[in-house]
Design a protein that fits this description.
Number of helices: 7
Strand content: under 5%
Order of helices and strands: HHHHHHH
Number of strands: 0
Structural class: mainly alpha
Number of domains: 1
Shape: elongated
CATH class: Mainly Alpha
Length: 230
């Protein structure tokens, strides 16, 4: 009788086999934590989007004043967009790698998950290095932060985007450390998915910023008129 009670209390199934997770409690808790993390990330991205939206509106409004010197003029730094296109390619490749890792994690393929995840972080670091190089070129040509409002907004927008990506890289390093400690893939699948979602968001945000920074004063004027800022 005592043995029967102990087995029932310990979570024995009808066939008499021992269950360490009666009723799938741990699995359910893990799914709840994953869903909560996704909701938290989405809320964070909404806040970030609102912040950048306000900065973009300020950018358009400020571009209509007389002291605005466009960065896309023939002798200005953004007359040649090849460095920014190269950096964009790094970010696109990083998103592709993380999406590959995300799909591999869903199919329980540890090797492909690790390779894709590692490549995603490496390409993100290459993007950040490329952005720093562009900044160095701005400084070398005398385009300092305070010398022109357009310069200030370029540093502000690209810097904020870079800081958010740097935060993602820090999280990426933390997950890589778990991979190196051989934490089971089942416990890291949600983290890989969150990283992929974050990278995709930052890629979309980057192309919005890129398109705006590479536009002409005529485009800024048209947007300002449409938004009622002129």
């Amino acid at each position: 009788m005592n043995r029967l009670l102990l087995r029932n209390a310990g979570g024995a199934d009808p066939g008499g086999s021992w269950s360490h997770d009666p009723g799938g409690i741990q699995a359910a808790e893990g799914a709840d934590r994953s869903q909560t993390a996704k909701v938290g990330l989405r809320l964070f991205l909404v806040v970030v989007s609102s912040l950048f939206f306000l900065f973009l509106i300020a950018f358009i409004a400020r571009s209509q004043l007389a002291d605005w010197e466009p960065l896309t003029e023939p002798l200005a730094p953004l007359a040649n967009l090849q460095p920014l296109w190269l950096n964009s390619a790094f970010l696109v490749l990083g998103c592709i790698a993380l999406q590959w890792s995300r799909l591999a994690a869903r199919k329980a393929r540890p090797g492909a998950t690790v390779i894709g995840f590692a490549l995603g972080g490496v390409f993100a670091i290459a993007f950040l290095a490329g952005q720093l190089w562009v900044w160095q070129q701005f400084v070398a040509w005398g385009y300092f932060v305070a010398s022109n409002p357009a310069n200030s907004f370029f540093y502000l927008l690209t810097g904020l985007h870079g800081l958010h990506l740097l935060g993602g890289v820090i999280a990426w390093c933390w997950i890589v450390a778990k991979f190196l400690r051989h934490v089971p893939l089942a416990q890291l699948g949600a983290s890989v998915e969150l990283c992929a979602i974050y990278w995709h968001y930052l890629l979309g945000l980057w192309f919005v910023l890129f398109a705006l920074l590479a536009s002409t004063p005529q485009t800024y004027e048209a947007i300002a008129r449409f938004c009622g800022l002129r």
